[in-house]
Amino acid sequence: MAAPSVRQRRLGAELNSLRERAALTGEQAVQRVNDELRKGDSGVFLDQPRLSRIEGGRLGIKAVVLTALLDVYDVRDQAKRDVLLSLARSGARRGWWQTYRDLISPAYAELTELEASARSLRSYQTLLLPGLLQTAAYARASISAINVGSSAEEVNTRVEVRQQRQAVLTRPKPLEVWAIIHEATLRPRLEDTRIMPDQLQRLLDLMDYPNISIQVIPLSAPLHPGISGSFTVLGFPESADLDVVHVEHLANALYVEDAADVAVYNNAFEHLRAHALPLAASADLTARIKQEHK
Q1: What is the CATH number of the domain that holds 12?
Q2: Is 59 found in the same domain as 109?
Q3: Pair (107, 83) in one structural domain
Q4: 214 and 137 in one domain?
């Protein structure tokens, strides 16, 4: 049995919260939802065990049942309803990344899906540039360094996936990205000296995008929350309270979903913004480092 996705777990947790906010037991919710479903003559019904599995993130939910639940829970915020319905439908939708399911990990595929549906992404990186900002050459060098023993074909495929992920930056409603990177990230020792000048120019070009903000924490900065490691906060419409934190490890990834824990990362990110150079100064530093390669 496949493990529940982050989005499925978040949807279940939100439905559990909405039910408790409506002061309904599971049995009461099921009874009222089935009353609503009978009105629509959908032929679909809900039972207590199924509701429990849905709230636990172990089972998906049909749009018609979710709509009835939201009516019973008196959720009138249309933006919130739309987001939750989107979460429910996402499980049946095939994304371009599924073509590579045999070559990328489930956690990486999930990150790609989350990026595709997120409204915003806030990333702090210590030694590696965010994948959405990487050139193909930089991506190839970093992927080769991390995936020791991978064949050239496997590396090329991963580079291709990383480049396709970047489509979220230029889609009709582009992903809003705020990246904070440590100055050390801009000064790696690469065998191919041609890679970093092009990569730094790519960052400078991206800084002109209206949906992308990039700040640099200088080497001279005092200790800050970022010393604990890199992380990414994926943001969804505020009314749904569905933000997720992605923390990448060498062999896998951790997703932080509890609202209180996500708040800790959001607070840390705000502190990192304060420690980083302003946007214009960050661009100036990036340009100076690029000049050092001449």
Answers
A1: 1.10.260.40
A2: no
A3: no
A4: yes
Report pLDDT digits (tens) over 124-183: 998 899 999 999 999 999 999 888 888 888 889 889 999 999 999 999 999 999 999 999
CA 164 to chain CA mean position, Å: 15
pTM score of the predicted model: 0.81
Alpha-helix runs per DSSP H in 41-77: 48-55, 63-72
Tokens at 179, concatenated: 């990246």
Structural domains of the chain, count = 2
**Residues 6 or more apart from 127 whose CB is under 8 A from it?**
182, 184, 185, 188, 230
DSSP strand pairing (176-182 vs 120-125) = parallel
Cα 115 from Cα 92, distance rounded (Å):
17
Alpha-carbon distance of 274 to 269, in angstroms, equals 9
Residue 95 is assigned to a structural domain of this protein: no
- The answer as to whether 98 is a domain residue is no
R_g of the chain computed on alpha carbons: 22
What CATH number does residue 167 fall under? 3.30.870
Q: In one letter, which amino acid is 276?
A: A
- Over the chain, what is the mean pLDDT? 87
Beta strands in the chain (DSSP E): 120-125, 176-182, 212-217, 231-235, 244-248, 253-256
CA distance 181 to 125: 5
Domain of 26 in residue numbering reads as 6-90
Q: Are the CB atoms for 136 and 102 separated by under 8 Å?
A: no
Burial of 141 (0-12, 13-18, 19+ CB in 10 A): buried
